Structures are given as structure tokens and as C-alpha cells.
Amino acid sequence: LTTPARIGTVVGACATDSNAANDADCLDKFIQRFGSKVLRRAPTAQESTFYKSVYGASTAADPAAYADVIGVMLNAPQFLYFVEHGDTEVAGQPNVFEVSASELAARLSYQFWETTPDDELEKAATDGTLLQPDVYQHQVDRLYADPRTQVTISQFVADWLKTEDLPALDAHNQDPTFKNFAAADLPKPELRQQMIDDVLGMVDYYVWKKPGSLDDLWSSELSFNKGADLAKIYGSPVWDGTSAPPAFAAGQRPGLLTRALFLTSGSANTRPILKGVFVRRRMICDDIPPPPPGANAVPPELKPDMTTREVVEELTQKSGTVCAACHKSIINPLGFATEGFDSLGRARTAQRLFDATGIEVGQKPIDTQSVPTITPGDETVSSGPGDLARLVVASGKANSCLARNYFRFTYARWEDPSTDGCALEDLRLKLANGGKLGDLLKEVAMSPAFRRRAFQ
């Protein structure tokens, strides 16, 4: 930043001219201007004095001295962390304060852009107008509409849906069983990212391109895949990203959970237990008791005469065992609902069976019927992913769960229902009755909780 080619841009022409008379003023203005960006507020008089001392006793224009100031500023705790002191105490709530205008601007810019406030937002914070409701609403709308927000929301979705947990799909390409199982669809390295992009593209479509609800994610029969390898698995055209997305055959692949990202295991075997745990924890935010001591953590393996479901049932659902209590009613039924797709995400009605050498020895019909018990005591039978999606939507639990996950993303902590209940409910209500996903994503900045913090 202080090379001859850049210092004039970073500090100003006063740092490169031959006029020594303006050097002191040049340093003062740089500390105020650059310091305001780094600290996300105007430096105090004490801080300005400190940074001048870093520069040195002389104020003569010196690139090395400016480099020292920049280096120290970029190591300041106020740059590396959100250091908040609050402003006005909230009536009736001891130790809870409204954050200052500068602190609020930083919260807002990092929420949507993951970077420091721009000039317009910084100006509104500096002159205090950001605290006026109409100005604040304008800034929320402006920041949300900026393309940078789309990148941030995609990062939230990737975290919410744990897309990075998808294993490498080509790791078993030399295994005889996997080679025979995958056949013409033997994965290339690019397939993994295509599966991730497929789901991120789906959410992106219903947030930005055709604003929709969370219910749309659970029921959509459109394909958002842009990769040729995944298109083969789906048996559908590649989407160009701009025209109307192609549709799957009616009832073939309804909703989010039928996308390959949530079906693929990286092996020749599906993982109903992991699928069930994912839905229960990540999609409807139910707690699952920890496994008992000594529980087998090794995934059930294929058998030449049993489907994956049969193997899992035999291993985890035997009456009287400690496993059955959770697996039979809480975990397995959710995973069984999508057994109509193999471990590459291909639709199937029968499971191909292999012997120990990888040779196919037969097939057995797939059973996707289960009682998923989305709400306690509900014995409604589901025949597959479409029924499961409808039960989840009807329960309203997916809305509450997404609200919780976005709360965690926003505040970087777990929620406390006793103190955060109102903030969570404000978010949930934005999704109720078919509310738009975008309304939830913006609403978090309008919540009173977003503008307050507690001090111990």
C-alpha cells in the first residue's frame, strides 16, 4: 500500500509532492480517514495521538512510517473484532443498551456484505441519521438489494445445509463394487461441486429470481442443475441459469430433500441413518439424544441378500435394544423416505445387490413407506419424499428451524429461548402462511434485538 505506485492513492497526493509544509496535515487526515475505515468509527483524540506516535517524532512524508501506521491499525482489536460499548440503555432492561450509530452500521454491513460500511452508510453513522427509522429502513433496503448480499446469503445457506459435509464422490472409483454400481455414471471430481451448486442455485432462485417461500423449497419440482454430469444422473436438461428452469416429471423428484446433495454418500450404499439425523436436526431442529456408550459408529454395510433398509432395521430396530428407541421412531423413518434414490442420487424402484467381489447378484424392491413422526404422537404414514415434505410443511417446524439457523448466523451464538424468544418469533412469522424467504433474510436487521446488546 505504500509503494511509490500506490501511496498517492492510499494516503493522498500530499504524501508524494515536494511540499513539506503539508506533511503534518497529510498525516492527520490520513489517520482520520483510514482510521475511520479500519475502526468503523472516527478515531478518538487519544487514538489519533497513539497512531501519530507510531508514525514517529517527525511528520515528514515517509512511506515506511505510513506502513507502520497501517500495520498497527490492521492489528487493532477494534479492527479484528466487533468491539461494542453501546449507547443508550434500554428502559426496563438492565444492562441492555442500544448500540451506537457506528456500531449499528458495522453490524448492518457485515450482516449483508461481510465487510466494512461503504461511504454512504459510514456518513449516515457519523452524522447520526442512521438512528432515524426512515434512514435506517432505507439503508437496510439498499444493502439488501446489493449483489454482495447474494454472496453472503449463499454462504449462510451453505452453512445451514452443511454442503461441505458432502464427501469426495470419486474416492471409491477403483473399488469393484462401486465401479459396477456407478457404471456409466462413475463420478468425476466436478460432480461434487455440481451437486452443491444445484442446491445453492435452488435457494438462490426462490430468494432472488422468483421470490418464494420455504414451502416452495420443500415442494419444487424444478431442476437448478448447471452441470452435465449431474444432468445425466437427473435425466434432465442442464439449466442455463437465466431461462425458466427445466422441470422433473411430476412426482419424480419433489422438493429439496430429493436433490443429489442430500442423497449421495460417496459409496455404493445409501445412508438412511445419516439422512434421518440430518432432517431431524438441520431441517426441523429436533433434538436427538446422544447414542448410548458402545454404540457402533461404523455405517451398516451392504449385504448380498438384503436392502440397505433391511440391514439398518435389523441392526438398529430390534425390540428391547437401546438403539430401537431413537432409530425406530426418530431417525430411520426420515431416512427411509428417500430410499427411492440410490447413493448417487439416481431414481430407483429396486436396489441392486452385490457380493463381496463387487459382482451384482440380484435386486430387491425398495420400500419408502414410513411413519416419520414430524410432531410427537403423529402416526401419519408417509409413502415417500413427497408425503414427508407435506408433513414437514404442515407442521410449521421447518419455518421455526430456518429462523433459528438464521438467528445463529446473525448473532454468532446459540439462541436462548428465554431471552431470544421474541426475536425468533419475529423471524418465524415472516415465513408463516407462505411468507417469502427474502422477507426473513431482511427482517433480522429490523428486529429490536439487532440494534441492542447486553453487557455483563
Which tags fit this structure?
single chain, 456 residues, mainly alpha, three-stranded antiparallel β-sheet, two-stranded antiparallel ribbon, 20 helices
The H/E string reads HHHHHEEHHHHHHHHHHHEEHHHHE
* C-alpha-based Rg, rounded: 28 Å
Sheet with most strands? 3 strands, antiparallel
Sheet with most strands: strand arrangement: 1-2-5
**What is the β-strand count?**
5
The end-to-end distance, rounded to whole angstroms, is 40 Å
Strand content: under 5%
Query: Would you tell me the structural class of the helices and strands?
Result: mainly alpha
With helices defined by DSSP (H or I, 4 residues minimum), what is the helix count? 20
Task: Compute the average pLDDT.
Answer: 94
Which word captures the global form? elongated
Helix proportion range? 40-55%
Ranges with pLDDT <50 over ≥5 residues? none
Description of the structure:
The chain has 456 residues and is mainly alpha-helical. It has 20 helices and five strands. The protein has a three-stranded antiparallel beta sheet, with no helix packed on it. The chain has a two-stranded antiparallel ribbon with strand order 3-4. β1 and β2 form a beta hairpin. α2 (23-39) runs parallel beside α4 and α18 (397-411) crosses α19 (417-431). The protein is elongated and about 90 Å long. The protein starts with 6 loop residues before the first helix and ends with a strand.
